[in-house]
Amino acid sequence: ISFLDPKPQRVLVQVKSGKVKPSDIRDLGHVIEREKAAIGVFITLEKTSRDMQTEALSVGKYRYADTEREYPKLQILTIEELLNGATINMPPTQHTFQKAERVKDDGGAVQQTLPEKSKRKKSGGGGRSGGSDSLLLQSSLF
Question: Is 0.85 surpassed by the pTM of this model?
Fold first, then answer.
């Protein structure tokens, strides 16, 4: 996973099942440091222990330059938490968009499409009514 700050930064993710222990968190902390990653995330099936949380907190915080907001440098998430809607606490990912050009299909409907990146579909029965506009954008993640 990556984001800009203002240079590209990485979020490392490690997934582990079975018995997890504080040394697993400590090891990920060393990998984050060695790889110069902004944030590391440890995903596990098991509930985390107090010692594991202490190890994660000892790694410190990452400060996002745009907002000066701080994020935990090492985060632990369980599969149960993820299934219940938890997310990685990290700066927003950046998307860029390419402007689409206007084209008309055979039925006279106006669409916005991207050159050479998308193909127009001819409107048929049950399709779009004449005169309606649509906008198709292509997003690329840094």
Answer: no
